[in-house]
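pasting for ref. prot 1 ->
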Amino acid sequence: EWLHKVLDFMADGMLEMLDTLEKEGGLSLNNANHYCGSGGTGFTDQLPQKDFDGKRVRAKDMWGFATTQMFSLVSPAMHEEFALRHEKRWLDRFGLNAYGCCEPLHKKLDIVERNVPRLRRLSMSPWVDVAEAAQRIQKKYIFSNKPNPAVIASEQWDPDFARKSVRDTLEKTKGCVVELIMKDTHTCRNQPHRMAEWVKIAKEEAENY
């Protein structure tokens, strides 16, 4: 009960901030080539709302986002009670929503769907069971795949392994709406060409699927 009071206090503060930003004109649209959620672009024709006056942006004209990475190893019930229950208050204000970052969500899709209004994008981290998640998500949401950045950070750059990894993901996600986002690339071993080569490989394999 005490912890819920703390979390409600935090959520109240965030929502008061959002109210102020709306009132003072401090928000801007993010429905084009904007970074969205934990990766991807915000392109959509579902935002802003039809009654948008072209001047004052409201939260409901925008993408919203929440993530609870520190809850990666807690049960779905605890994740729902101590995270989503409070995140829902924030997400309910936005026109469309993205959820997740590095936490594996393939065992928590039920609670996410139940609590995130107007969900459109789900982060699928390197620790998800890709096949299980793909079977559940299908075309309902964007399958925002985050490959393991170790493929770029490893001692030796192995483009064949990189291609095999991308191909395996695309094979398992046939029928889904997939985006591949290589992020958290904290080192490339002083070989920045690895990133360009990975992008080229990912594009080639995406074209094949």
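and prot 2 ->
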Amino acid sequence: MNRTVMLAALSVFLVAGCDSDPLGPVASPVITLTVNSMNASDIEAGIIDKDENISTETGNPWGEFIRQAEGVCAADPVAFEVTSASLALDAGGSSGVEALDEVLTGSTRVIFRSTQGSDADATQVEIASGTGPSALVVTATRTALTPLLERLQGGDFHVAVQGETTRQEGEDFSMDVLVSFTVAAFCE
């Protein structure tokens, strides 16, 4: 057997032996969701917390990403990993607030939830955290997101902003928070 044939056979063997390893990643575009009308009614014991449902409707960035990943994978992705996350104030949809740090004054987290935050049985995974809204560090790994895999595949989950605040219940303000993140999807 000549050397070229042996190398070709070895290459086929090595590639075939990698079938159990996940492929990917399939990178998402920046996905932005607006958590609408965070206000004093979302404050309890110095924590403001509100979420919004993400969906897979046509034109929805998460839905488009899932369809792209399914096309590359030829199946549902087997894992996800958050690669970036940030928050911004939508000034046009806010009143009584000119900057996020007027409301989010301490520890801040972005969370993926299986259902609405008021559901005590919701599975929650922190995807990013930091002190204040501008210093978020991604914390979600593939392993951490595993409990939400089916929800992520189906686009049936909530994105939450939760943070310490010095604002009081009953204060007159409302803010729309833009949550932007990127994700990697992995194939089997």
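The helical segments are 3-16, 61-73, 142-145, 149-154.
The chain has four helices and ten strands.
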